[in-house]
Amino acid sequence: MKICIFYTSPKLGDLILQLPAIKAIAEKFNTKVSICINAHIGIKNILNEQNYIDDVIENYFRRGRYFFLDLFKLVRDLRKKNYDIAYILEKTKAPALASILAKIKQIYGFGVGSQKFFINKSFCLSRNDLRYNYTEQSIRFLKKIDIEVDFKEKFLNLEKVKNLDLLKSFKNLPKPWVCFGVDSTETNRIWPQRNFAALSDSLIEKNLAKTIFVINAQNYENYFQNIITASKYPNNFVDCKKFNRKEIIDIIDFCEYFVGIDSGPSCVAGALKKKTFCIIGATDATLPRFSSMYKIKSDIYDSSREIGIIRCGDNFLKDNSEVKTIKCEKVYDIISSNLL
To answer: Which of 126, 132, 230, 245 has the smallest number of CB atoms closer than 10 Å to its CB?
Structure first.
């Protein structure tokens, strides 16, 4: 039986959050599965080496005038494999339409909006289900087809694709190595950089860190410079902005533990089953469910926002006023109590 699973978000974290659902489908049928993902993700070589994935199809899933160009390319790619079943872990229509044109016999998807015209309607989600986060949506969908999702496993393994040359380039850096994920495309998630600096000072002084790799991709401010300026130990940091996505994932894997906001890198750390300390901003703390993740919430965290008004996230605070209330001391205490 040949199975293809679709998830088209261009965000790395969103895809990583779906790996438990993808692995659950593979285990249900006792077979490796193909996955079709957004080409912007850029980690095909890593995903291809996972023991529950046999192939990775990439597509840009663009809109407007490029929609049909990408659609026909996807149909060609699907026809090469002769898939029996398609699972679409979202409500988008392009994967469903491509599956129809590729003559895949069994097509399952959320079935919300126009997608419902192209899939098996027996297992659709309701529009109300879209008020829950992406993890919960997939859980509800798969439960309808008798598939349970387990979050206790390791969902990314780099043994076959470990970058040993990159590791050697860090050999003179003192250990313990720690990874900080300090920024996001969504500014309401971002913990102040002075807090990361103060936290790093405490970790270094207690010998819980000696080299800190700082992951920062956005340009809202100079995150790395702001941290080392505020820290008493500026020479203990490595700026990871120059590394590509594959190298960033390797660095997370090399480190002893991860500290960061709830964004893509923290999801990667959780999927690697790395001890992950995730600082939750004005978002939904129930979204990532990796078993190795410790979630650090503000004292004013409001669980009512875990269900959207119309859709997931439409009731989140738009600024980082809440995440600013999380004290450095609180984060340090949670980290140290789970390391010592």
So the answer is: 126
Whether 149 is in a domain gets the answer: no
**DSSP type of residue 219:** -
CATH code: domain of residue 262: 3.40.50.2000
b/e per residue 100-130 (b: at least 16 CB within 10 A): ebbebeebbbbbbeebbebbbeebbbeeebb
Strand partners, 33: 53
Count how many domains the chain has: 2
The model carries a pTM of 0.96
**pLDDT tens digits for range 94-131:** 999 999 999 999 999 999 999 999 999 999 999 999 99
Q: Which residue pairs from 76-81 have beta carbons closer than 8 angstroms and sit at least 24 positions apart in sequence?
A: 77/36, 78/4, 78/36, 78/102, 78/104, 79/103, 81/2, 81/4, 81/34, 81/55
Residue 152 lies in a domain: no
pLDDT digit string (tens) for 212-240? Answer: 999 999 889 999 999 999 999 999 999 99
Structural domain span for residue 92: 3-144
**Of 261, 284, 259, 293, which Cα lies nearest the Cα of 191?**
261
